[in-house]
Write a structure and sequence with these properties.
- The structure is a single chain.
- 28% of the residues lie in helices and 19% in strands.
- By secondary structure, the protein is α+β, with helices and mostly antiparallel strands.
- The protein has a single domain, classed as HIT family, subunit A.
- The chain has a five-stranded antiparallel β-sheet with strand order 1-2-3-5-4, with helices on one face.
- The structure holds zinc ion.
Amino acid sequence: MSTDLFCEIIAGERPAHVVGADEVAVSFLDTRPVFKGHVLVVPRAHVETLTDLGDVGPFFERVQAMARAVEQGLEAGGTFVAMNNRISQSVAHLHVHVVPRNKKDGLRGFFWPRTTYDSAEEAQAYADLIAKAR
Ligand SMILES: [Zn+2]
């Protein structure tokens, strides 16, 4: 059994501002929010990344409900929903970020720089590699 910060929160061994919990997922405030009200939704079972998650349906129903709750509860204009897998993943227990967004909140586009494809052929080659792996 793996132990990490999120397993400790789920087990009630570490305090957190829990905003929702059931048999599938536990949701709580990120201690270092992008914006106040930034929630992390984590599966109750220890799973490291998206590709390790067996039945995705029930978990993403919780993510969807939390996106609705963050938007309505905070009267936000919208939300940003994201997940890091391995790279930039601070805790090795799957977690989906649900961040409240508002117009002119200062978060422009997002953190990462964007690039372009050199040609339509190069773009198609990337598309083919991904499509073949499905
Ligand atoms: Zn864990």
